[in-house]
Amino acid sequence: MVHTVEVERWRGMEHRADVDSLVVEEPLEIRVNGSPLAITMRTPGQDEALAVGFLAAEGILRSRAELYDVLHCADPEYPDLRNIVDVLIDPSRAETIESAGRQRYATSGCGLCGRATIEAIRRCVPPLSAPLPVPRSVLYALPDRLRVAQAAFERTGGLHAAGLFDLDGTLLHAAEDVGRHNAVDKVIGLALRHDPWPPERTILMVSGRAGFEIAQKAVAARIPALCSVSAPSSLAVQLAREMNLVLAGFLRGESMNIYSGGTGG
Predict the structure, then answer these.
(1) Which residues contact 227 (CB under 8 A, 6 or more apart)?
(2) Which residues belong to the active site?
(3) Pairing between strand 246-252 and 255-260?
(4) Pick from 261, 58, 249: which is nearest to 143 by CA?
(5) Does 144 have pLDDT greater than 70?
């Protein structure tokens, strides 16, 4: 996940030769039953979880029973890069991909911009049950607990992070990636493969802003609460309120803004 390079450091008029740690960014092709679906620029690591979480967050995978296997392989032209993940799923679910024309290219920075709208979410998934009350003390503790799991960020300063917590604030899964959407997909994929599904009594914490695509992924994965250290977007707030998603922003220290839902005291 980390690559070291030589740099020239300047401080005012003084400079010196040094080394710096950079986050690695490489393409990953996600295939479903052998057919290409998407290419995303990601930080290598937890690639199988990223691919599975991507499908779950898109509403393609709805249960663990629909997931048959995950194959991680290299492109024959670039044998040193294990940059293809083929997710084998129930053929009936794979048919929904072709019918929706979902083959597309995704960057690490923007997620799958353009396809997802609130109208599309309404058609694909129902609202969550009544907003889940989460104690304020639990929410206040999440940023520090997520930061402890950000080992690569401490070295590079160039990674987003996502963490999935239970309602007591215990970290269940964490992931880092150059793309905040990828980090979310990774923790969703880990939950689908290893935990009870759907994760209806969990909290998703992200290190960046809470944009519409992040809220969309939480709703599609049936995660009832989303928290961020930064701001949400107007469309994320609208989606959260329509879908009964608890949404907290500017979660720093013992302060936050609740944009949707509420807390349990």
Answers:
(1) 139, 142, 203, 204, 205, 206, 210, 247, 248, 249, 251, 256
(2) 110
(3) antiparallel
(4) 249
(5) yes
